[in-house]
Amino acid sequence: MFSKHYNILAALLLSLLMSPPAVAAQGYDISYVWSRNLSSVKDYRDQVANILGPSVARHLKVVTKGDLYGLIYRRNGNNESTTRVVKSHTKLLRARGLDAVSPIKTRNWQLAGNATLPQKIEPSGKPVKAVKTVSQRKQIQDLETAVEAYIGELRRSGKIARDERTGWSVFDFTTGKKLVTINEDTQFQAASLVKPFIAAAFFHKVKQGKLVYGPKSRRHMQRMIQHSNNPSTNWVIRQVGGPKRVQRILEKHYPAIFQDTLLVEYIPANGRTYKNRASVHDYSRFLYAVWNKKIAGAREIKRLMALPSSDRIYTGVPEVPKGTRVYNKTGSTARVCGDMGILSVKGADGKRYPYILIGIIEKQRSAQNYTSWIRSRSEIIRNVSAIVYKGVIAQHNGA
Question: Domain named Beta-lactamase class A catalytic: which ranges (predicted)?
Answer without folding.
Answer: 168-353
